[in-house]
Amino acid sequence: MSAFAEATVLITHEVGLHARPSVKFTKLAKSFAAEVEIALAANGPWFDAKSIVKVMATRAPKGTMLHIRASGEAATEAVGALAELVRRDFDEGAGHARTA
Question: What CATH number corresponds to the domain at position 41?
Fold first, then answer.
């Protein structure tokens, strides 16, 4: 039986899920033996969290509730780590946010 996990987390990063945060998010998602998806609404549509193109295409701005779900061997670990990355502002924080 395959594991399943999900979480919802608020994007507080100044630029939202833009280029640098998306790269960090997908890189971390790829490190887990799980199918990982994200959505901007609880009922979807759902996007492959391991695809930089699909993650960036969400254009999720600051203040968006990001829904994360995963299934597979490392589902719980994947969702926990990805939600924590978002909570940490993708390890960039307000002091590191750049203006475009």
Answer: 3.30.1340.10
